């Protein structure tokens, strides 16, 4: 075999196996005082213990986000549902949102799940005015919002339209690019 091909083959094998093993690291202080780190054991080199590489595995997100509530998610035993959590999770309070089209998606959190079999619904208000009819959704697209600050709130209503629970109001700010002519 040609010497060049042999050396290329050896280098390829060395590269392949180098990731699978750990090498010793050595520290040498040069005559000018500079420090050199190498993987070669020189005469005056000091062996250095290198800590293993830190690894991180992110936790699995176990939350489930839905955009519509199904009837089977909340049991219907005849008693009114006692909701323990009802909040706006998006947009966050006092958030600036760059949206040249004025589009924002509102996402709510409801615990336990909305009991649509008893007629419970969600009503959304923007700047004190209702947005659409009450529905069994927890995600609402808002479109064509003007630039500036907006206040958002939501309420849970039972089958007779009585308000069961209301979220804390959330203020958010729409930013749009402005081009002068």
Which descriptors apply to this entry?
181 residues; Immunoglobulin-like; six-stranded mixed β-sheet; three-stranded antiparallel β-sheet; 12 strands; elongated
List the helices and strands and how they pair.
Blueprint: H1 3-18, E1 25-29, E2 35-38, E3 46-48, E4 85-90, E5 95-98, E6 104-111, E7 121-126, E8 129-135, E9 139-142, E10 148-157, E11 163-166, E12 170-175
Parallel strand pairs: 5-12
Antiparallel strand pairs: 1-2, 1-3, 4-6, 6-9, 7-8, 7-10, 10-11, 10-12
Plain-language structure description:
There is one protein chain. The chain is mostly beta strands. The chain has a domain of 105 residues: Sandwich (Immunoglobulin-like), CATH 2.60.40. The chain is 9% helix and 37% strand. The protein contains one helix and twelve strands. Strands 5, 7, 8, 10, 11 and 12 form a six-stranded mixed sheet that branches. A hairpin with a 5-residue loop joins β1 and β2. The radius of gyration is 31 Å and the shape is elongated. 13% of the residues are buried.
Question: In a few lines, what is going on in this structure?
Answer:
The protein has 181 residues and is mainly beta.
Reading the helices and strands in chain order gives HEEEEEEEEEEEE
Q: Main β-sheet: number of strands, strand sense, barrel status? A: 6 strands, mixed
The CATH class of the domain at 71-175 turns out to be Mainly Beta
Q: Total number of β-strand segments?
A: 12
CATH fold title of the domain at 71-175: Immunoglobulin-like
Helix content: under 10%
SS-based class: mainly beta
- The CATH architecture classification of the domain at 71-175 is Sandwich
